[in-house]
Structure formats: structure tokens, C-alpha cells
Amino acid sequence: MTALLELDRVTLGYGKIVVVHELSLRLDAGRIVSVLGPNGAGKTTTVRGVAGLLPLRGGEVRLGGKRVSGFPPHRIVAERLAYVPQGRELFADMSVRDNLRLGGFTMRRRDVPARMEELFEFFPRLRERAGQTAGSLSGGEQQMLAIARALMPRPTVLMLDEPSAGLAPRTMRHVFDIVADVARSEGAAVLIAEQNAHQALRVTDHAYVLNTGVIEASGPPAELLADDRIRAAYLGEAVEGGPV
Ligand SMILES: Nc1ncnc2c1ncn2[C@@H]1O[C@H](COP(=O)(O)OP(=O)(O)OP(=O)(O)O)[C@@H](O)[C@H]1O
Questions:
Q1: Phi-psi region of 42 (alpha: psi -120 to 50; beta: other; left: phi over 0)
Q2: Binding site membership of 156 for ligand 1 (Cβ less than 6 Å)
Q3: How far from 91 is each of 73, 101, 146, CA to CA, in Å?
Q4: Fewer CB under 10 Å: which end of the chain, C or N?
Q5: Does 14 contact ligand 1 (Cβ within 6 A)?
Q6: Is 3-80+155-235 in CATH node 3.30.300.110?
Q7: Any idea where the domains of the chain sit in the sequence?
Q8: In what order do the strands lie in the sheet with 81-84?
Q9: What pTM did the predictor assign?
């Protein structure tokens, strides 16, 4: 089966520094894959490279088998890949509804209200706050809005960079559960770059552990957690946080 998203020996860097070395991964429909790893491991660099925001130094990115590396970001969006950056980048002075409308700017206008309604079913909090400005929402609600906005045009691949950042554990859990729910219902594939291994592993089908730009290990969560070396070095939070 052709992967929805495939990274084939992707190399990325800044100036003279190589930050991600020949990274390969695949993501299939309806699956949630995490890229885990400590600060500075190269997670953000990887998702920015896939989104077309950073040129590849080597290797290839394919979406549904089609090579997209070298495409500018808007063409990658047109190939139905959505990206929620760290920091969310919402339009703070605009309402929840208008932020969602902007997320649907590539859609046929008449399809926008129905799609918004569908997303309100997954994110009822956003329906309650539809007329409020994005800047007045709580951190968790802002993260939900950023994710819902990215989902407006029904992407086949959704990439989330550090969705747990700044959220309380209960809110994080809620956000991850909704993401899993949407992915399963809509058959989207989700790639999560995340430092919080505990939360990510709970909803992940397959994880890659990245350290200084190299994959140290990969596999289903149970397999990674069974590896004492990997668990101790990279998944500490997963263990401290209790069973995943
Ligand atoms: N614009 C930049 N210019 C130069 N070096 C950079 C730039 N952005 C990131 N780096 C370096 O690349 C390495 C990987 O950073 P990256 O942000 O991808 O890590 P990360 O795994 O996402 O970590 P974090 O969770 O802290 O964001 C780090 O050593 C960082 O200092």
C-alpha cells in the first residue's frame, strides 16, 4: 500500500549545520504517528521541512506517492497536507468562526458552513465560543481552534508541532483524544512532533524516537516502552505518568 506521507532519507539543516540526518518514516491513512525526542532533537525542523518551509538538503518527501519536496508551502497545502505550528498562529482579534472560515479559504464557499458544523461536533467548546475572539480563549481552546482550522479543508495528512505545549495534563489529554477521534472518523493520517512522550504514546500507533537528528528507535508504543534503554533515556515522562 502507498503511504499517505513518506519521508525518504530526508536531510535538513540551517547554514552549515545539518540538524536532521537521512530520516525515513511513513504514515498510513487513519494512523497516528509520533516523532518524539528531547529539546533540539530536530522535531520542528522535520515538520517544517515536510511543510515546505525549509528546503531539503537531501532525500525526498512524498504525499500519496507523489514527490512534493521542493514544492512551496501553498502547493503542499493544495496536496492536502495541513500543519499546525508550535505557537498556533491564530488570528487573535478575529472570532473563532472567522478563524475557521479562513482555514477553509481553499474550499468552495458554500461547503464552509457544513464543514464548520461537522468540526463543531468534534469540538463542542468551539461552538459555544464561536463568536468570541481567538485571543480570549484558554490555551487548550486555542489549540483546539488551531487544529480545527487546519482540518477545515479535510486534509489527508495533519501535522501537529508540540500540541501539548503550555497545556495542563487534563487539557492535553482532552486535545489528544479529540485528535485521535477525528483521525479515526475521517481517515486522516496524523503526524505529531512531541516532547511529551506520555500523552503522545497514549494515542499513537507508531512512534519514532529522534535524538540529535537521528532515529534512535521506532515501533509501536508497547515495544518502545519495553526497551529499557529507550524508556530510560527518552520516555521518562511516559513511565512517570503511569500506564499509557
Ligand atoms: N533557524 C535556525 N537556525 C539555526 N539553527 C536552528 C534554527 N532552528 C533550529 N535550529 C537548531 O536545530 C536543532 C533542532 O531544532 P528543532 O527546533 O528542530 O528541535 P526540536 O526537536 O523541535 O526541539 P524543541 O522541542 O525544543 O522545539 C537545534 O539544535 C536548534 O538549535
A1: left
A2: no
A3: 19, 11, 10
A4: N
A5: yes
A6: no
A7: 3-80+155-235, 90-153
A8: 81-84, 157-161, 189-194, 32-36, 206-211, 214-219
A9: 0.92
